[in-house]
Amino acid sequence: MADRRATLAALASAAVVGWCSRPWGDGPQAQIDHPAPDTPADREAVRRFREWQKANALPAVYLEPVGPALATPGGSRIGGPVWLPAGERWPTDAKGVPMTFLAQLDFAKLPTLEDYPSHGILQFFIGHDVYYGADFNGPGGGSFRVFWRPTLDGVGAMHLGKVRNDLKHGFDTNSPLEPKSVLTGYRLAGRKGTHEPTITDWRFQRDLKDIADGRGRGGVNRLVNAQLEKHLERHHLGGNPDFTQDDWRWEPKYQGYDRVLLNLWSDNTVMWGDAGQGQFLIRRADLLARDFSRVAYQWDCS
To answer: Residue 67: how many CB atoms within 10 A of its CB?
Structure first.
């Protein structure tokens, strides 16, 4: 894993359009600065920030890899085998390159969330290319597919992707999945909880601009660092999206993407560039309508 991360970091820094460079122009920045000594302004900023976090918290299901994926149509998983209806081919990109099967959510076997389905399957495929199918100029574009299957009735079969390791690097530089994730996959167990936004969320700049610009920021930075140490990054659906760098939703045209279909961090199952994360977001109105045709997909890394 360490070798893969180091190699991906080098590839990212060498890319003409950096994998993990920020492509969003003059949007808000969210870097953590050096904390200042504790002051009354710090304490007041922390109080307001905590109120803001709690006010914007959303129910979530945290997803934990717990072993090999089951070779059955149902079940939530990262990678591994996937069920496709009879006559449906493995999805490809515009050039005919087979996509990467990234993950599946089986809502009937996960804790229920308001607004989200109580049954049915979502399958996530991403392009097999240097950007993992993402379009860094527009998260609504790119090379990816999200399949909504209300049921798994009918004739179909299990299919398995191929490991496509780069001979030079010894792993697949066009996929975030580790080889075992492709061939076996990892079963995901769900646990219901609450997920709060943090300083990378675009609304932090909107709602607490004076703090974002520096007033009491030292206290907020110390709090956020403590939160990150206490709550290790976890895969989740629902809740708020997480970002390694900045929130691409700062542009008004993307601010309607307010619900998380899937947020995957980097671990021993998946590695987004240099230990980043990827997310699939949807507008609440589309989620309620079970319309998964306008999902946005993006990822970033450190």
So the answer is: 11
CATH of residue 164: 2.30.320.10
pLDDT single digits (tens) 190-217: 999 999 998 899 999 999 888 888 888 8
Higher pLDDT, 193 or 19: 193
Per the structure, the complete domain to which residue 153 belongs is given by 2-300
Number of structural domains found in the chain: 1
Task: Give the three-state DSSP class for 46.
Answer: helix
Give the mean model confidence (pLDDT) for residues 144-151: 97
How far separated are the first and last CA of the chain, in Å rounded? 16
In this predicted model, what pLDDT tens digit does every residue of 113-127 receive, in sequence order? 999 999 999 999 999
Residue 29 CA to residue 175 CA, distance in Å, equals 28
| pLDDT (tens digit per residue) in 237-258 | 999 999 988 899 999 999 999 9
- Alpha-carbon distances, residue 176 vs 82, 100, 279 (angstroms): 17, 9, 13
What angle is formed at CA 32 by the lines to CA 233 and CA 21, rounded to 5 degrees?
A: 75
Query: What is the C-alpha separation between 284 and 301, in angstroms, rounded?
Result: 26
Q: Which amino acid is at 219?
A: G
Q: How many C-beta neighbours within 10 Å does residue 225 have?
A: 12
Q: Which secondary-structure segment (H or E) carries 2? A: helix 2-14
Q: Classify residue 121 as exposed, middle or buried by CB count within 10 Å of its CB (0-12, 13-18, 19+).
A: buried
CA distances from 69 to 23, 168, 186, 270, 290 (A): 35, 29, 4, 14, 26
